[in-house]
Every structure is written in structure tokens, then in C-alpha cells.
Amino acid sequence: MLSYNKIYEIENKINSKEELNEDDIVYMYDEANLYDLGKIARKISYSISGDNISFVSNLILNYTNICNVRCKFCAFYRTDADSDKYSMSIDDVINEINKYYKYGIKQLLIQGGVNSHLELDYYLNLFSRIRSEFPDIGIHGLSAAELNYIAIKSHLSIKELLLALKDHGLETIPGAGAEILNQETRIKMGRPKNSGLEWLNIMEQAHKLGIKTSATMMFGHVETSLDKAKHLLSILSLQKKYHGFLSFTPWNFEPGNTELGKEVAYRSGGSDVLRNIAISRIVFNSELPVIQSSWLTNGVNMAQMAILFGANDWGGTIYDERVIPATGKNVGNLRKEMIINSIRQLNMIPVERDNLYQNIKYY
Ligand code: SF4
Fold first, then answer.
1. Are β-strands 349-353 and 359-362 bridged in parallel, bridged antiparallel, or unpaired?
2. Around 30, how many Cα atoms within 13 Å sit in the side-chain half-sphere?
3. What is the pLDDT of residue 4?
């Protein structure tokens, strides 16, 4: 009975556009009925985008796996001593894009490790070259950790770095690296470098310069419900200042082949994934209109369920992504036709978008 009243109270707050607080969010994590959350979340998504579910023709390009941050939850990074380390030259990157360009790629998610061998000029020349050879592809590039390191190495402020990258073709910044913003938890999960405040600061500086970004949260490891509540509210608070976040993706920790996987051996189940999707939809409401289904970590079937629980963007196509397969999970490729078909199976309308979430084509 108590739980019934509380979910009613939360629904009333949503209807009267009142912001939810930490207690409301912790309640939704720990006690609320998942089906109730899903119904509220889907209703909010419907009020924002009806039955339209967007997706993007995307290419993920992991240009290097050498990384000096060495997060305990990451299976992707390699050190200089590893024989399977790699760094792509600018020509390699261009050749790789050329391989997939025929699929109508509109977004290039370019992200790798924090690689001390690469200079600022590498990134500037790389982005210029991509922009001149593929002017219709939006560059969605570099995590906050990469940006922070490049700025320090080049003796530039974050603002100066962002302006230089923007000038050479950077369009948007992925929200990777947010993990869980609470510093104590970041230390426990094995990311002592790159604080949560640093991530928020880089996002804020980008938003002030008019560079849009996405936001993320990684759950299913050592975090608490309160950590997640604070994480969502910090992002909401920044969003209210500049409206610079284009989307939010909650994704689950993949333990395979990671240090942290020795402590947290099991990945989150489907109900946990759906709960996180629904809660983020409910907390962000129309302030951050796009919630992504995170199909990459959870597969196509769960992505369909995520849409029924409040996501309104599928995410993108995938061709040869390398970060998730490093955990031992087989992702495969996902072409546009498969996404369109999966959305249609829900009796919803697939809408292709570009990197800036502008609709290009309804199917
Ligand atoms: S998550 Fe990113 S920053 Fe951390 S080790 Fe992996 S590649 Fe490096």
C-alpha cells in the first residue's frame, strides 16, 4: 500500500512538472514496481515523440586501444607492452570510413584510449581530413578523458582545445566517461583518475561554446541507488542551464575480461536495464528529450523492450565496434534495415536522424 501511494505521489509530481528529489529516485530504484515505472516512462516518451523512434546511421571508430588510464572496468585498453596494441594513422581512419560510407553513414563516433604518443596535430589533422572528405558525416568525438589529456599535453585550456577541435570539424562530444559521477564510487570501481567533476566541467564548457554532447551512466557494478540518483540529478541540473545534452544513455557494466569483473562477476539482468531506462526517462522528462536504448550492451531484443519502457532513440548502426567485443561479448554488426524492422515490429515509426538529432527520413 505504501509503495502504491508513493508511486502516485511521484506521478503527481511529474504531472505538475515538479522536479523529483533523491528520495523519489532511490524509491524508484529500490521499491517501485517495474511495470508501474515502465507505464509512466512510456507515457512521457509518447508525449515527447509519439510513436517515432529515431536511429542514426553510425560508424564507431576506435582509433587506438593504447590507454594510460587503465580503468578496472575496461577490457579494451592495452599498454605499450601488449602485442595487440594498435593506433590508426590518419590514412587508416580514412580508409576505414571509406569501407562503410556506402551505408549512408551520418555520424562518426570516434573514440579510443588516452594515448600519450598522439599529439594535438594528429587530432586536428584527422578531423580536418574527415570533414573535407566526408562533409555529410557529423564527427561525434573524444571522451572527456581523452580531451582532458590532450589539453594538458598541449598546454591548452579545455576551452582552447574545444575551440581548436571545433574549428577543425568536431561537431559533438560523446558522454562516455561519466560512469558514476560520485568520486568515492569511481575510486571503488577503479577509475581514480578523471573525476566526476572533471567530466561535468568538460561538458559544461562544451555547452557554453555551443558544442552539444551526450550523457551516460554506467550501472550494475559497485554503485548504490543514491549514487545513481545524484548522478541523474547532476546531469539534469546542468541540462537546465544550457540544454547542451542531446541524449542520455544508461548502460550496464560488462564484466568479461576486466579487473572489476573479479569482484562483480555477473552483468545486470534485463529488469535492471529496463528499470534504469524507465527511471532516466522519468527523471529527465522533457528537459532531456532523448533516451537511448543502449542496444550495444543489451542486444536487439532488449532494445525493443527498452523502447516500451521509455527509450525513444534506438542508437546507431554498428560496423566492427571493438570495445564491447573486448569483454568477450559477441556484438556482431547491425545494419539500418535490421533497426527499421525491429522498430516496426513494435508498431512504431522508425525515423532516421543525423548526428544533431535532426530527422532525415521516416520509414
Ligand atoms: S574506459 Fe577509456 S579511459 Fe578507461 S581504460 Fe578504457 S579506454 Fe582508457
1. antiparallel
2. 14
3. 58
- 283-303 in b/e form (b: 16+ CB < 10 A) is bbbeebbbbbbbbbbbbbebb
Contact 45, 311 (CB under 8 A): yes
Residue nearest to atom 7 of ligand 1 (CA): 113
Our count of domains for the chain comes to 1
58: which 3 cell numbers?
A: 553510425
pTM strictly above 0.85: yes
Residues 231, 297: Cα–Cα separation, whole Å: 20
Report the CATH number at residue 198. 3.20.20.70
Decide whether any atom of ligand 1 lies within 6 Å of the 189 Cβ.
Answer: no
Q: How far is the CA of 171 from the centre of ligand 1 (A)?
A: 22
As a whole number of angstroms, the distance between CA 341 and CA 335 comes to: 10
Domain encompassing residue 308: 21-355
Query: Is the distance from CB of 356 to CB of 171 less than 8 angstroms?
Result: yes
For the Cβ of 149 lying below 6 angstroms from any atom of ligand 1, the answer is: no
Element (H, E) at 131: helix 120-133
pLDDT at 331: 60
Please report the pLDDT score of residue 194 as a whole number.
Answer: 86
509519439: which residue's cell? 50
pLDDT less than 70: residues of the chain: 1-4, 320-325, 328-332
| Amino acid identity at 206 | A
